[in-house]
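Q: Hi! First time asking for a complex rather than a single chain. Here are the components, and I think there are two in total. Is that enough to go on?
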Amino acid sequence: MDLKIIEELSVQSPEKVVMLVLDGLGGLPDPETGRTELETAVIPNLDAVAAEGICGLADPIAPGITPGSGPGHLALFGYDPLAYQIGRGALEAVGIGIELGPDDMAARGNFCTVDDKGIITDRRAGRISTEKCAELCKLLDGMTIEEIDIKLHPVREHRFVAVFSGRDLQIELTESDPSRTGVAPLEIKAEHAIARNTATIINKFIAKAKEVLSAHHPANMILLRGFAKRPQLPSMKEIYKLNPLAIAAYPMYRGLASLVGMAVADTGAGIEEKIKTLRKNYLKYDFFFLHIKLTDTAGEDGDFSRKVKLLEQVDAALPALAALKPDVLVITGDHSTPAVFGGHSWHPVPVAILSKYCRTDGVKEFSEKAFICGGMGRIHATDIMPLAMANARKLTKFGA
Amino acid sequence: MDLKIIEELSVQSPEKVVMLVLDGLGGLPDPETGRTELETAVIPNLDAVAAEGICGLADPIAPGITPGSGPGHLALFGYDPLAYQIGRGALEAVGIGIELGPDDMAARGNFCTVDDKGIITDRRAGRISTEKCAELCKLLDGMTIEEIDIKLHPVREHRFVAVFSGRDLQIELTESDPSRTGVAPLEIKAEHAIARNTATIINKFIAKAKEVLSAHHPANMILLRGFAKRPQLPSMKEIYKLNPLAIAAYPMYRGLASLVGMAVADTGAGIEEKIKTLRKNYLKYDFFFLHIKLTDTAGEDGDFSRKVKLLEQVDAALPALAALKPDVLVITGDHSTPAVFGGHSWHPVPVAILSKYCRTDGVKEFSEKAFICGGMGRIHATDIMPLAMANARKLTKFGA
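A: Yes, that's all I need. Here is the structure of the assembled complex.
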């Protein structure tokens, strides 16, 4: 749905919406039992939400397309992830809590190993420790080249974020990472004439970095890619007239929420602590994005039974959330991460909406298979926000 | 889904995908029994694919729109048939294995009968034999009019393809076939000024043809329509990084496959022979389009029980295909051809995907009605390729 139209239809109202996002929620059957993580877990409270609410399956992007965390969440917040693409560098910056200003350009960086002829022998510098990475970042941090300030932020192991700050930086650049060993790092080139000056500056920085790192084998060179600026996203306040709060512990999700204009709460990482944070802030906001990361991590690790246990933990905490009696409760995920697949996947994600006006369907169980017959059918994830808004009586009539 | 994005996400992998297309697969209930062709046929192997796989219904174009064979297949190969339209002349040329060059324009032709006043009395010239058609085509073949070379290719009975070759041919032309008898053939007119010269040349050719054919009653005149050039389609190799093989016996489907960049195998027409061809080529390719024509023909002929028998024949051959253990098996059709309807129809087409990661649903039976509750829901036929690619782990993540 066109956000311009949603913006025209949306009105402020006292009703409160809680969107509980279990990262990587959807699963696949364990080949032994034929049951998915949700079908295996004992989750009476989630089942009750399914029974009283309306259920369905949501495609974050499109059938067959596996979403990254950025696009998956944008879709949940109602932004078409194909229309609003966040550059890799910007997302990596967001992921470690860096707020990019309008004159900032971020890039993803790797420390790598080159031989004495400058040929890459290891694109990850033997996966140096995060501590070593931080130490090396300090050596390169704080340079200024032709009035462009350069800051380096360690991420994890060999990975860092480089932030270039100054006027007229242009992102139309090729990357220096050749994506393979046995060749030299590539020169950064401008993809459009407008970015030529930026390319020159980046290449000078890379040359400097090589000098500085020469004695730091195996991390004796850097590779840069994914040049990007802060994406321009209309805020949820404008579009939905909401006063939204994000309750998330991981920097990536806190960053994503702030990109769409949410306030971001200080919170502990566990579900109980997040519900406590929700309770504490319940009167001050009218939309709450409550993010649970560990279900995804368990899926990524291929740990079926851990994902099952985490679902049961969330289920056990649910009554404390329900006690707040939100006018609209949405429970869904940003994408599926089936443990038997061991990573994000394209499978549509279960979504349940519970409200006074949800039009309860016949589904009794919170699971992928049960939700196929849910009242929402198979929807696009960007439909979830308009549905939540409508259930909260925050969307007026279209046309007379 | 935008093919540009699919192209960015797709990667080569060893996994093999077999797409079995039963032309005209979907049906309608026999009014006597209330059961469709699929519901009447005894098809335990197809039922097993439905039970183990994920099922759904696909719209080749859009609800209510009946597809021709060209658009139906383009959608199955992932090309939006509204964005990629193949002109009738080009499709007819493709259908008899003619490869059109960039300076070629094709038209569909009929031999017809006119009386001594030039009025059409039979638009099909009494359905002359294909041999007679070939003989008459020879009489008209090889003319050159104003530097435009004209070649005629017999198709079947009264039908032929005319190929005009030369510079500046323009397809914006009206047709000469009035679609009824009792009137004279229409003059070809330019729909845009740019095509005026082409129209003049075609009209000269038609006049010449009338002269040459004057003594060949009942085939004493020709009708031309569907002027078209070769469509520009990105190849499946580019988009999907696949090495695809078409196993089809009818020229139309062989031609369509070659338009999207598939290799086309020599094969016998029966399903067993096609599976033999599949087996022989199994190591050399990673995507196989296996086309079964006769299910559609039976539907077109309104022959319910023949369609049922053909479905049972396909079912009986399925274990030989399954023995190859393709990583992803897709079974679907290019459109519905219900026998009680006697032609292509708009009804969505059953589609089943079987793979290790398909997320099995609760469907147990391969039928239109059972598939309504399938896990894929109701999808667009262009979603089938991304889903097949995803199931074969040939699509990387969108965004980070």
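A: The longest strand of chain B covers residues 104-114. Let me know if you'd like any chain examined more closely.
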